[in-house]
């Protein structure tokens, strides 16, 4: 008969926090936030406001719903961000005249000019990775995210 494993033996084999990929990504996200903070402070933006502007630089005049999907944000999270950016003069929101249920978000001239000030915000150098390593890691994380989204959708049925 095998001796029962002690609690100490079980704890030794239990994964440690540093072994969790999800924690590595979470804590890297926090580190990114800290690295971006001084730069974004100069622009008067939060990180979420900044990525909202970036999404509009890529494709101006989007619906709130489409923008939320792109940013992985629910409407109740995105709406206050859009209101603040509108107050800052970086975007405007308007009901679609063809479908009053839809709200379209567009950059103002000030929102477009903000891009020139924000161009150095990529932190490739600060990451300590070579540009090709940085690009490879970014693609890997996107693939991981997309696979996890698919898995969650399958679980929901």
TrEMBL record:
It is found in: Cytoplasm. Residues 18-146 form the HTH marR-type domain. The keyword Cytoplasm applies. One of its GO terms (cellular component) is cytoplasm. One of its GO terms (molecular function) is DNA-binding transcription factor activity. It comes from the Bacteria. Keywords: Cytoplasm, DNA-binding, Transcription, Transcription regulation. Its main location: cytoplasm. It holds the Pfam family Staph_reg_Sar_Rot. GO terms for biological process: response to stress. InterPro entries: HTH_MarR-typ (IPR000835), MarR/SlyA-like (IPR039422), Transc_reg_Sar_Rot_HTH (IPR055166), WH-like_DNA-bd_sf (IPR036388), WH_DNA-bd_sf (IPR036390). This is Transcriptional regulator, MarR family. It comes from Afipia carboxidovorans (strain ATCC 49405 / DSM 1227 / KCTC 32145 / OM5).
